[in-house]
Amino acid sequence: MQSPIQQQQQPATSQPNGDNDKSLIVRMAERLGNVEPEKLWNVLKNDCFKVPYGQQPTNEQLMMLCIVSEQYGLNPLTKEIYAFPDKGGIIPVIGVDGWVSILRRQPDFQGYEFRYSDNMIRMQGAEVDGYEWIECTMHIKGMTSITVREHLDEVYKPPRKGRSGPWQTHTKRMHRHKVLIQAIRMAFGFSGVYDADEADNIRNNRSSDGNEVDITPNSPSPTLLPPASDSELSDSEKSMRKQLLQRAESKQCWRAAMEWVQKHPNLSEAVKKRFVNDLSESELMHTPLSDDEVEPTQKRAETPNADSANDADPAPEAPDEQA
């Protein structure tokens, strides 16, 4: 299948009239630093969709992501925006840095401030206490300020399968991000885009209904076998899985770990799929957080700088294989 860039290179029947006649991917390539459109297309396809290892989004799904990225002026290469495939379309996900980028470009935005509950609570599975609620007030030129309050027990994400994630280790920061995003939405009316938690809820709900989109090939393949359950893993495989997850999470090199699993000669296809699924879930749970912290006593918060894209990590050291 040809990419839209290759299709565009076919002879045209009319002369272009300016920027409006340039393809979307060409405009995006120019906006992101005059990179080659074909290379940009390949990078977006490989890195900006959260899909099971070994799969890729369709050209149509990738084009949808490009459209939303251009609409909101976001950079998918720095994870300001990414997407999940969904029933032939996509679920566009904007990270906290993307929301801050959108906020900074609102001409009527005049700052925001947080208020914190005096009561501290600890949610199930959390490693630290969190505020019972946090409020964010958006100040808008020519309008009454808008205040949004989010309660921790309504937004907290419990650990999955006993493994801690950002909500367990950085409860206050994740809660603050959540209320900031909701305040931006309420103040400026954004819709049709989601944060990571909301996208995860959508996918889980549709999966439980049996409507999760499947973009695997139609031809028979060992990868379509169900993943191995806990009871089907040997003691050595359980130990290997534990070591693999620990090293992938400590080095943030989940994709390299997945490649290592796929090439392992002594693992069955069901065990490989189980390991890859667990690594994919671990990657989603450990999305890098901004290094900026806002102290509770600080009335007016400075908007954090967007994180730059992380360099690719080397492949993890192979876990010890037990006999």
Task: Tell me about this structure.
By secondary structure, the chain is α+β, with helices and mostly antiparallel strands. Helix content is 40%, strand content 12%. The chain has twelve helices and seven strands. The strands form three sheets. The protein has a three-stranded antiparallel beta sheet. A two-stranded antiparallel ribbon has the order 1-2. Strands 4-5 form a two-stranded antiparallel ribbon. Helix 5 (96-104) packs parallel to helix 8 (171-188), helix 10 packs parallel to helix 12 (269-285) and helix 11 (254-263) packs antiparallel against helix 12. The longest helix is centred in the middle third of the chain and has 18 residues, at 171-188. The termini are far apart. Mean pLDDT is 75; it is low at 6-21, 212-225 and 289-315.
Shape: flat
Order of helices and strands: HHHHEEHEEEEEHHHHHHH
What characterizes the major β-sheet?
A: 3 strands, antiparallel
Overall mean confidence score, pLDDT: 75
Strand content: 5-15%
Overall helicity: 40-55%
Structural class: alpha+beta
Unreliable residue runs: 6-21, 212-225, 289-315
Q: Helical element count?
A: 12
User: Order of strands across the biggest sheet?
Assistant: 3-6-7
Report, as a whole number of angstroms, the end-to-end distance.
45 Å
Number of strands: 7
What's the arrangement of secondary structure elements?
Elements: H1 4-8, H2 24-31, H3 37-47, H4 59-72, E1 81-86, E2 89-94, H5 96-104, E3 109-116, E4 120-121, E5 130-131, E6 133-140, E7 146-151, H6 152-155, H7 166-169, H8 171-188, H9 196-208, H10 235-251, H11 254-263, H12 269-285
Antiparallel strand pairs: 1-2, 3-6, 4-5, 6-7
Helix pairs in contact: 5-8, 10-12, 11-12
